[in-house]
Amino acid sequence: MNTLEAIKNRRSIRRYVKGAVIPDEDIRQMLEAAMLAPSAKNCRPWEFTVIKNRDMMQKIMDISPYTKMMETASLAIVVCGRPMDQEGRCGAFWPEDCGAAIENLLLCALELGYGTCWCGLYPSDEGRYEAMAKLIGTNEGVIPMAVIAVGVADEEPAQRGYYDETRVKVLD
Ligand SMILES: Cc1cc2nc3c(=O)[nH]c(=O)nc-3n(C[C@H](O)[C@H](O)[C@H](O)COP(=O)(O)O)c2cc1C
């Protein structure tokens, strides 16, 4: 699958084959893809927590009502931002940087044959990222930005085309 095919084929998957096991080597590849994303001043202000434990997967669903797909997902990857890595080096670009890392992770997962769903945690005024920080035990100042469900897809949402000329301005 080339990059454009992966971009066009990627959809959020909310139903997975229950009990499917993802080899550690595949998880490593997804994380490596995430860590290869561009970041402001190359600060790479991120860290990742891989959750395979079913009780913890249940707790994720308790933290955010929009993560019910964790019920069938094989694992969850919490993507955390590290604003402290950018202090004094560049502006607070860590949310963008983490977003780029997440998209790399999603596309790599697709290439490896897995489905994913990006579930946002930050910003939220409902205490979600704080609760996630507590659940996974982050250090002070580390911000859980999103949790990604990963598994073998048990649904096949259709490709979509969103090209919208009205959103494009070309200045010659
Ligand atoms: C920042 C962000 C937060 C999201 N949060 C959730 C979420 O909490 N739960 C969920 O099911 N999907 C979530 N999504 C997935 C979007 O709903 C999905 O990407 C969008 O509907 C487009 O569908 P597609 O991913 O299949 O193209 C999130 C996506 C982004 C980028």
Describe this protein with a few key phrases.
172 residues; alpha+beta; NADH Oxidase; binds flavin mononucleotide
Which secondary structure elements does this structure contain, and how are they paired or packed?
Layout: H1 3-9, H2 24-35, E1 46-51, H3 54-63, E2 75-81, H4 94-111, E3 115-120, H5 128-136, E4 143-151
Antiparallel strand pairs: 1-2, 2-4, 3-4
Helix pairs in contact: 1-4, 2-4, 3-5
Flavin mononucleotide is lined by residues 11-12, 14, 64, 66, 117-120, 157.
Low-confidence stretches: none
Number of helical segments? 5
Shape: globular
Distance between the termini: 34 Å
Quickly give the CATH architecture: 3-Layer(aba) Sandwich
Which compounds are bound in this model?
flavin mononucleotide
Helix content: 25-40%
Instruction: Write the H/E string, N to C.
Output: HHEHEHEHE
Largest sheet: 4 strands, antiparallel
Q: What's the average pLDDT?
A: 97
Strand order of the largest sheet: 1-2-4-3
CATH topology: NADH Oxidase
Quick one: CATH class?
Alpha Beta
Please tell me the total number of domains.
Answer: 1
Q: Structural class of the secondary elements?
A: alpha+beta
